[in-house]
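Practice problem: predict the structure.
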Amino acid sequence: MGTAWAEALPTSSVPVPHAPLAKGTVITAADLTSRTLPSQQVFVSTVQTEAQAVGLQSTRMLPAGVPISVLHLRLPPLVNRGSVVEFTIQRGVVSLKGSAQALEDGTAGQQIRLLNPATRATLVGVVQPNGQVLVN
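Answer:
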């Protein structure tokens, strides 16, 4: 009489969306549930804990029940493409302030391009933590 041996595969519990999340959604704890998967289906780029995803924005649609890749998340932008932002040009003790249209999204510390509506000139600056842009 033979004995059947079954190996238990190692598993990992990872957060997954409990419902589909649209591109651009800022993820909250309420959006996630836990799912146990075979460890071979959990990759280095897979979000391992809820804390790794909460507060980040999806860069694509995230299907329900599917592990989330960190490659599909980003910090939510402080500046959104097309929005009007305040900028400052600082040269020594002289500073010039104005408004311009953001030509791209940007998070704190990121360099972005702006369009000055008065001159139609393209400016390049760094997004500040308060959402304003310091032009180089």
